[in-house]
Amino acid sequence: MNTESSSLLVRDIGEQGLLQILQRFCPQEIIGDDAAVIATEPGQSLVVTTDVLVDNIHFSEITTSAIDVGWRAAAANLSDLAAMGASPLGITVGLGLPGDVSVSWVEQMYVGMTQCLQQYNTPIVGGDVVRSPVITIAITAFGQAYPQQIIRRHQAQVGDAIIVTGVHGASRAGLELLLHPEKGENLSPEATKALIRAHQRPQPRLDVLPILWQILGSSQLAIAGMDSSDGLADALVQICRASNVGAVVERTQIPFPPAFAHWLTPEQALEYSLYGGEDFELVLCLPKEPADKLVQMLGQGAAAIGEITNGSTVVLHDQKQKFPDQVLSLSQGFQHFG
Questions:
Q1: What is the structure's pLDDT at 7?
Q2: Quick one: which of 8, 224, 246, 295 is 20 to 30 A from 29 by CA?
């Protein structure tokens, strides 16, 4: 961080002064014109996604530092690209700021974005800055994918296995610990740190894609999927709705963080996992044989949790018959304007 900017506010340096600082985070050979020019590989389609984060809706100073805000903002967009089967090319950042935001906060946010993006060799290729009554971060991410490898929600087929690439509920648990630290009294320091980090530093699962393509080889299998940023239940229902199918999900197969076993009741663990959101894992539907191989190659946390069925309902089933069947819906998860 520039020590000269540590006590300055955005209004002290104005738009042009702030842009000069932010341009340091961008490749100099790309920025400077009215738009960025990004090359794509021959035969690949351009994949574009946009996410908007708003202060006190998606983050707050109580739970998220500026550097973590930046990380989470970048990760959310990279996760959307992963959910489409695309590799990232770059992002643009639209930033709305009140004048009394410190310049150092903005710098630290860009440090966080850069730290996340550098893992995937993804540059910030442009953006815009405007005055706003509330901090707003609008990121557009650009990726590329071969048309036959694009993952879509509407491609689930009856008989497909439903795969999750990792545990669910960790981010929701981390948020709870940040808001109510006393609830973690029975957790080890290591478990507490891991859950909080899952909330503040989510990992987009771009690493899954090369493994998936290795398993599928030259086959033209259509893969259905999306990420679980809005919750596992949301992803399951959205995929089934788009594909005009149903699903049976086995509650005992949903992978939880290990700390849940002696910290939460089974009902709380299930609620966090289904409706907590912001885990940024992938939920994929594909034939059983490649699905089993994918789970095996991904290792700990990945699991086959159910099967696509005829019909239109997503049923949570308990093979141990301790709990009755439950129909999953979108109503219990987070909804804007809800």
A1: 84
A2: 8
